[in-house]
Every structure is written in structure tokens, then in C-alpha cells.
Design brief:
492 residues; alpha/beta; seven-stranded mixed β-sheet; six-stranded mixed β-sheet; 38% helix; 23% strand
């Protein structure tokens, strides 16, 4: 599907109390598409006063929304689902335009968000409480309640999907939700916000506040914000989590990754070649689930040669999108140069890839493969966040697992093999939160939750599935006695 370039710019606004507002005397920043470099809109940088306004409106809405029966909340979210599906193509175009994805990738992010929404809709039919007679005449009951005003802080690389990891569950369980999208990709978030308004959710139940790091800090510090979800780099995740924890808030902050793909000699060529290339080139490598280190065990030269040739056939603009901005492109160029200077063999140089003629001025980089790297080199340790994969050679599976265990990140690890024993060994011993067997991007499908370990996650639990329900709610325990029993024991 071809990207359609807009004829008019999209000037983003904040969504406060159910209305779109420009704010007073707010700085605005221009937005540029990674495809062409052209201006596609602008976004406001909200100040503390603007943030206070959005939180107060959300707090007022939360009072009624939490008491709305779950099935009534779900009916409005069903309407939101219908609108998402009806507008999936437009949202896919928007996500591609501002983030550099292909249109197909942009739409796929929307559909993954719909899947999370469908899980959230199922919560209306789950009885998550319980009551027991714990002693003579004494009962204990538990009920799950919303937290109040909660916020989600989203990254640039998935303008629709990551916000939709948080919005549906938080709203379904009765919270008022404030979204702070990345200031690099706010347009899709605004379109999602309009669909939520069109679905009929009460004013203030869902809000959008735009801005940069200062906006995040003020939002985290606001005393009426009870909990936060965050997705971004590990450095930013650690910072937000630490700040929230000091303020006594609940926070779950997902960070970066250096995902390992382990390839052994008995790997199936078809699954392995496609799986590896799709993993490190999908979304131009700008996703926390992208493979960035291939651990080659033993004699697998034939597989690696085939991976190089398949990646060489990637056509920019058709098979793979653009890099988010020039600063990121320059950083990737420096990382490639350093890898070569350290001694890696450059099997495929994406800097030489031809940019699409129709998208002149964009920020493009083709698939890049660095081979024969040492584990301690930067290209093998650092998260590069681009279509660059580094290959480290080892002799045994034990060595591969030792490398994986030493990885400071813990997002995903995949093994490519045709032997069940090898697959089980890696699944049991790998230290990442998400494991793939002959799958290069092992993202769990709902209701299985998304989340990593080590410095890929700060906070407890996962962001989707049952973990999301836990994160956005709290348990209330009620103990009751209505009469004194003559045969009461000390427990009564």
C-alpha cells in the first residue's frame, strides 16, 4: 500500500475535558515526515498550567466513570472498536507518515491495538472478586477498583499500538486516562482521541496532553495522577520510574532491548532466513522487539550468506520504511562506522541503499549487517534502534546462552532450531521476558501479556493482558460480621 502525502498540515491540539484546545501562549514545534522531510503539522509544548487543567478535568470525569457499570463502559468501548476498524486505513497512513513506517506496518499497529481493546472488552464478563466465610459468621470479600486518574507516556515508534496497549484496559476498569504521545508523532494520537470522542465516552475520561520531557516530569509529579505507564528507552524508563517511585506512585516503565537471535546448524532455512531478516528490518529496526544481535552457533555460514542476500533485496519505501529523523540517522551512521573501525566485517552496508525517488529529502538507511564482531564491541552490546544487525560467532549453545545471560537487557530471545530439546533448553534458561522458537519477533498475542526483564522493564508486572488489569487497578478487601455466634472461636 502506497503512502499518500497530505495536502494540508495537521496542527495538533490538547484534548481537555472533551474539547480540543490550543492552549495559551504555548510554544509550537513543527512536525516533519521521515519519508520526505516536508512539514506535516505542528504540536504544542504544554506548560504546567496546561497540564494542571487536563488533570483536573480528568479527575472530575473519573468520579462518575468509576461508578458507571462495567457493561455500560464496555458498550462505549465497543463503539470505539467499530470506529477503529472503520478508520484503520487512515490511521495506518497517519502512523506511517509521521513515524516512517510502511503503511502496512502502520495499519498492523492499529490492528494489534484492536486486539488489546477486545481483551479489555472481555473484562466485563469476568468476576474478579471473591467472598468466603473465613470463620463462624465472618466473611471476607475482595473487589477490584480503578485508581482514578492515570497516564500513559508513549514513544515515537508505534503511534497507535503503544497507546492502545494502555488506553483500553485502563478505561475498561474505570480510570480516567491521560495520554502524552511522543512529540515526534502526535497526529495519530489526535486521530485516536477524536474516535474516542465520536464513540461517546464522557468528556474528560480520555485526554491528550502534548509536550516534551518537561511535560512528562510535570505529569509524573502531579499529585492527582495515581499511576503511569511508559514505553521508551531504558535510560528514560529508569528516570520516569525513579521519579514516580519517589512521589509514591505506581509506575510500569518498559525500556529498550538488545534482542538475541540464536541460530544453530540444524535450523530450518526457510523459517530462519525470513525470521531473521523480518526481525531486524521490520519497522526499520525501530522497535524494542527487533533483533539486533545474531549469535551464530557453529557452522552456519550458509544460513548467514542467505540472510545477507535476502536483506540485500529489501526495497526502501516498499519493504521497509524510513528512520524517524536526521539525528537518529546520523547516530546509526556513527554506530556502523565504529563497528567497522572495531574490526567487524561489513557484509551489507545500508548507507549505500537507494532512497525512493518519490520520497526525496527523507531519512533512509538500508539493512546493514556487521559480521564477526566481538561480544564486547559497542555494535554487539548497545541498542542501535535501526535496521542494523551484528553477528557474533560462538562454538557452542552454552556460549550462546552465556552471552544472553550477560545481556543487560531482557526483552526478547529467539532460537532457530528443528530440535525440540534445543528449543526447550533455550526457553528454560534464557533470561528474557519473551522467548521465540523459530520466530524472530516473539510478541505475545492477547491475553498473554507483553513485558521484558532486567533493564527492559522498571516496575512489576506487564503492560497488557492480566498484567495490565493488575497495573491499572487495586484490590479492596472487606471483612464483615453480622451476628454473634454462640459457638464462636478465637478466629471470630
Amino acid at each position: 500500500m502506497q503512502l499518500t502525502l497530505p495536502t494540508t498540515a495537521f496542527e495538533c491540539q490538547n484534548l481537555i475535558g472533551g474539547t480540543w484546545q490550543t492552549g495559551i501562549d504555548l510554544e509550537r514545534r513543527d512536525l516533519h515526515s521521515p519519508y520526505t522531510g516536508q512539514r506535516i503539522g505542528s504540536v504544542p509544548m504544554s506548560n504546567a498550567a496546561e497540564i494542571d487543567r487536563v488533570v483536573k478535568a480528568a479527575a472530575a470525569a473519573a468520579i462518575t466513570w468509576r461508578t458507571t457499570p462495567a457493561k455500560e463502559r464496555a458498550q462505549l468501548l465497543f463503539k470505539f472498536r467499530e470506529l477503529l476498524l472503520a478508520n484503520a486505513d487512515e490511521l495506518g497512513q497517519s502512523a506511517a507518515l509521521e513515524s516512517g513506517k510502511t503503511v502496512a506496518e502502520g495499519k498492523a499497529g492499529v490492528l494489534k491495538g484492536v486486539e488489546v481493546l477486545e481483551y479489555a472488552l472481555s473484562l466485563q464478563n469476568l468476576d474478579d472478586g471473591a467472598q468466603l466465610e473465613v470463620s463462624r459468621g465472618v466473611t471476607c470479600e475482595v473487589k477490584r477498583e480503578p485508581l482514578g486518574v492515570v497516564a500513559g507516556i508513549a514513544p515515537f515508534n508505534f503511534p497507535a499500538m503503544v497507546p492502545m496497549w494502555m488506553i483500553p484496559i485502563a478505561l475498561a476498569v474505570g480510570n480516567a486516562f491521560i495520554l502524552k504521545p511522543s512529540e515526534k508523532v502526535p497526529i495519530t494520537a489526535c486521530k485516536l482521541g477524536q474516535l474516542i470522542l465520536d464513540a461517546g465516552l464522557p468528556p474528560g475520561v480520555f485526554s491528550i496532553i502534548h509536550g516534551g520531557r518537561d511535560t512528562v516530569d510535570v505529569l509524573v509529579d502531579h499529585p492527582s495522577v495515581a499511576a503511569l505507564g511508559f514505553v521508551g528507552s531504558s535510560a528514560a524508563a529508569r528516570s520516569v520510574y525513579s521519579r514516580a517511585a519517589l512521589a509514591g506512585k505506581r509506575a510500569l516503565c518498559l525500556g529498550g532491548a538488545k534482542n538475541h537471535l540464536i541460530v544453530v546448524p540444524d535450523a530450518d532455512p526457510t523459517l530462519t532466513i525470513q525470521g531473521v531478516v523480518d526481525s531486524f528490518t521490520g519497522c526499520a529496526g525501530q522497535r524494542c522487539m527487533a533483533a539486533s544481535l545474531l549469535v551464530a552457533v557453529g557452522e552456519v555460514d550458509g544460513l548467514i550468506d542467505a540472510i545477507v542476500e535476502r536483506a540485500r533485496g529489501i526495497v526502501l519505501g516498499r519493504d521497509m520504511g524510513a528512520i524517524i529523523d536526521k539525528a537518529s540517522l546520523d547516530r546509526l551512521h556513527r554506530a556502523i562506522e565504529r563497528g567497522v573501525a572495531d574490526g567487524a566485517k561489513l557484509r551489507l552496508d545500508g548507507r549505500q541503499a537507494k532512497a525512493p525517488e518519490q520520497y526525496g529529502g527523507g531519512t533512509w538507511l538500508g539493512p546493514t549487517i556487521l559480521d564477526h564482531a566481538a561480544p564486547e564491541w559497542a555494535c554487539a552490546k548497545d541498542e542501535l534502534f535501526g535496521p542494523v544487525i551484528t553477528i557474533v560467532r560462538v562454538k557452542t549453545l552454552e556460549e550462546a546462552l552465556s552471552l544472553e545471560a550477560a545481556n543487560p537487557y531482557g526483552n526478547a530471545t529467539s532460537i532457530f532450531t528443528t530440535r525440540g530439546g534445543v528449543a526447550r533448553m533455550v526457553a528454560d534458561r534464557a533470561t528474557s521476558g519473551m522467548i521465540g522458537i523459530n520466530i524472530g519477533v516473539p510478541v505475545p498475542r492477547e491475553p498473554f501479556s507483553f513485558g521484558g526483564t532486567k533493564t527492559s522493564r522498571f516496575g512489576a508486572g506487564d503492560l497488557t493482558g492480566a498484567g495490565g488489569v493488575e497495573h491499572w487497578t487495586q484490590l479492596k478487601k472487606i471483612t464483615a460480621k453480622w451476628a454473634q455466634h454462640s459457638d464462636a472461636t478465637w478466629m471470630s
